[in-house]
Design brief:
This protein is of the alpha/beta class. About 40% of the residues lie in helices and about 15% in strands. The protein has one domain: Spore Coat Polysaccharide Biosynthesis Protein SpsA, Chain A (Alpha-Beta Complex).
Length: about 220
């Protein structure tokens, strides 16, 4: 019987993390939840522990990719689901990502979010990610930046170390395709907190765009 672990990178997500963890436990399909507190200044670690997650703390903010790389050493499940801390109630839907792996139809399953009807994003980063992945692997993806992913623990191990920062999804996808792992995308009715069209939102998108471009550039020479 395959066991399932969940790995959640979290930076200052104390407000939303409890709901996300509870939703995952309520599926009754998860063996363990590991939260990597990525240098948070709020109560992220306390909340995660309170709701039954194993907590791994980084003293400083190392970024999503490195946080997940650290977290790998602490998961024990045969299959690992990567989940963002802000999914809240919709986090329960991510367990569906495991099914194609159990059926031996895929090695890596990526969740596709519904179209953003709020128009909070511009789609530039996603477009660049799609073009970069197609250029380097000849594979077209709809959701190259989705962080909601399921894969066997041994596959995750083969992809380590993960690309640092916000380039993690693009880097993981390119590396997985180059190693001939089978990737499929699965539409799920997930919700999360998209960056708004304000100063913080633009800063976030700028960092993401830079990390994506840097990652694609690095993969061009490998």
């Amino acid at each position: 019987m395959n066991t399932i672990s969940v790995l959640i990178p979290a930076h200052n997500e104390g407000e939303r993390l409890a709901t996300t963890i509870k939703a995952l436990w309520n599926t009754n399909k998860i063996e363990e939840i590991v939260v990597i507190d990525d240098g948070s200044s709020d109560d992220t670690a306390i909340v995660a522990s309170k709701y039954g997650a194993r907590v791994v703390c980084s003293k400083k903010n190392v970024g999503k990719g490195k946080a997940l790389t650290i977290g790998y050493s602490f998961v024990k499940g045969d299959i690992v689901i990567l989940v963002d801390a802000d999914l809240q109630e919709s986090a329960s839907l991510t367990v569906a990502l495991v099914e194609p792996i159990l059926k031996n139809e895929a090695d890596l399953v990526i969740a596709v979010f519904p179209p953003d009807k709020r128009g909070s994003g511009f789609g530039i980063a996603r477009y660049v990610a799609q073009v970069g992945i197609k250029l380097l692997t000849k594979k077209s993806l709809n959701a190259p930046l989705s962080g909601q992913r399921a894969l066997k623990r041994k596959v995750l191990a083969d992809l380590l170390p993960l690309t640092p920062g916000f380039g993690i999804e693009v880097g993981m996808t390119i590396d997985a395709l180059r190693k001939s792992y089978r990737i499929i995308e699965m539409p799920l009715n997930l919700t999360h907190c998209s960056p708004g069209r304000n100063v913080n939102g633009f800063i976030h998108r700028g960092k993401q765009f830079y990390n994506i471009c840097t990652t694609i550039g690095e993969k061009l020479w490998k």
